[in-house]
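Re: [ENG-882] Designed sequences occasionally contain unexpected residues at chain ends

Forwarding the minimal case from QA. Structure tokens:
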């Protein structure tokens, strides 16, 4: 899958039931929060 062509991945995501998506959505949100500046600093602090 090309980085700029997520259509197939998005279609697969929509194919999942809401019960399947909810836990994964929460995990994706956690990952996103770690990827921001505040999350990055939290990771660095924990590493120290």
């Amino acid at each position: 899958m090309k980085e700029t062509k997520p259509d197939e991945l998005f279609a697969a995501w929509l194919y999942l039931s809401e019960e399947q998506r909810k836990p994964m959505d929460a995990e994706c949100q956690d990952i996103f929060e770690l990827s921001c500046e505040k999350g990055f600093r939290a990771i660095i602090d924990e590493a120290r």
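QA comment: On inspection the terminal residues look reasonable. Residues 18-47 form one domain. Proposing we downgrade this to a documentation issue.
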